[in-house]
Amino acid sequence: MNVVLINPYELGRQPFGLAEPAAWLKRAGFSVGCVDLSLEKLDPDRLREAKLICLYVAMHTATRIALEAIPRIREWAPRAHLCAYGLYAPVNEHLFRTLGVDTVLGGEVEPRLLALAERLRAGKGSPQTEPVISLDKIPFITPDRSGLPSLERYAKLLLPDGGSRTVGFAEASRGCKHLCRHCPVVPVYQGKFRIVPLEVVIADIRGQVESGAKHISFGDPDFLNGPTHALRVVRALAAEFPGVTYDFTTKVEHLVKHPALLAELKQTGCLFITSAVEAVDDRVLERLDKNHTAEDFARAVGLLREADITFSPTFVAFTPWISLEGYVDLLERLVQLELVESVAPIQLAIRLLVPRGSYLLQLPGFEELLDPFDADLLGYPWQHRDPRVDELQAAVQEFIERAEGDGLDRREVFSGIWSMAHDALGAPSPALPGFLGTPIPRHSEPWYCCAEPTRRQLDLV
Q1: Cα atoms found within 13 Å of the Cα of residue 332, Cβ hemisphere only
Q2: Do 204 and 148 form a contact (C-beta atoms < 8 A)?
């Protein structure tokens, strides 16, 4: 029986979320095809013979693209059973089902994907019998990436000296033990996380290194959720693949709580760390339940500099609680900490997304700030009490998109945003210092998960 797994988008990385289910299904005798819409056009000939078509929706952007693709998939493969799986599937279950998706799965999906495929192979179709969300521990196996485009076609690691490296994408854990209110992981995993065994992680990395990877990006929501496991992974990586560098994402909380880890992370090849700082206003951080303060952020910057590990902070720059003065404070903090070169410009335009199931909805009075759910946005729209804030957000986003097309560097983009923010505030724009930070190693596709799909992405559908 033919199964097609489709990845709409995952930050330009080769997705573990297709490779792991592919391994499970192939081991059970299914013929599995993989389509990555970040690189490949949706082809009706690859769909017509499939009895099961599964869309992997790990991100907001991926979900938006999947929703565009579903009507065509239904047209080209009307008899196929459609499944949506991944982080954004359960919270958008109703919307997927209205578009004709038969099965919706979240959490640890592989056993249920396999059970669905076996049910279809036995001639038993809808309705769904598998639970929508399951967090049971599963026996991970080595992912099968053979059906995916080659690593060279995915996002590269760009180095400050102008060089680049081919990037592999691995996962050492799933879920997260934290409950940050705005995080999309929380409604599904609810504070649980699952470890991918060391031998599976290293086998997956080994295959990617053999395919040309010189750098590994760990896709865990928080790589240091289990610091002992994380250290085992990077020690094994460094021992078997000396010279292969890596990066990961973790909370500011972990960086300030485990400073003793940083020297070994550097020694084993850690090139940079991404952390969702989100804000420099403690009142906003408290509402988001980030469990760190603006002072912790500054401390983390110092600790990573001392360890010679690059810090790549991300932000939710626009929330209902920020003011124009608060936005200028964010920009000033980046100047003071010499982090301008470390922040992808898009991070300075990110607007708080409130999807279904968000823990933000538990905040007293928060729902009063929201408009009804918008299926196109995949969230609850909100307007700031000060319309100048919304106007600035829209202007900053438009400017960043234009600047990218014009090839402006990070300093030039920041300078433009600096002027725009002060103009919005009606205040003179102070001259920026000559030094704003050192250019950093970074992925050619920025880290952010709630962007509008681009025209190029939608053209591949």
Answers
A1: 12
A2: no
Read off the pTM. Answer: 0.94
CB neighbours (10 Å) of residue 228?
9
Q: What tens digit of pLDDT does each residue of 224-262 get? A: 999 999 999 999 999 999 999 999 999 999 999 999 999
Taking the CA atoms of 310, 313, 314 and 318 in sequence, report the sign of the dihedral they define: negative
Closest CA to 34 of 48, 49, 57, 53: 53
Distances (CA, A) of 397 to 62, 229, 430: 20, 39, 22
CA triple 436-437-439, angle to 5 deg: 125
User: Using only C-alpha atoms, what is the Rg of the chain?
Assistant: 22
Query: Checking phi first, is residue 163 left (phi over 0); if not, alpha (psi -120 to 50) or beta?
Result: beta
Tell me the pLDDT tens digit for each residue of 394-445: 999 999 999 988 999 999 999 999 999 999 999 999 999 999 999 999 999 8
Euclidean distance between CA atoms 43 and 390, whole angstroms: 40
β-sheet with 270-278: strand ranges across: 310-315, 270-278, 245-249, 215-218, 164-170, 156-158, 442-443
pLDDT at 207 over 80: yes
What is the rounded end-to-end Cα distance, in angstroms, of the chain? 24
Phi, psi of 23 (to 5 degrees): -65, -45
User: Bridge-partner residues for 318, per DSSP?
Assistant: 351
Report d(CA 305, CA 273) in Å as an integer.
Answer: 11
Q: Whole-angstrom Cα distance, residue 248 to residue 273?
A: 5
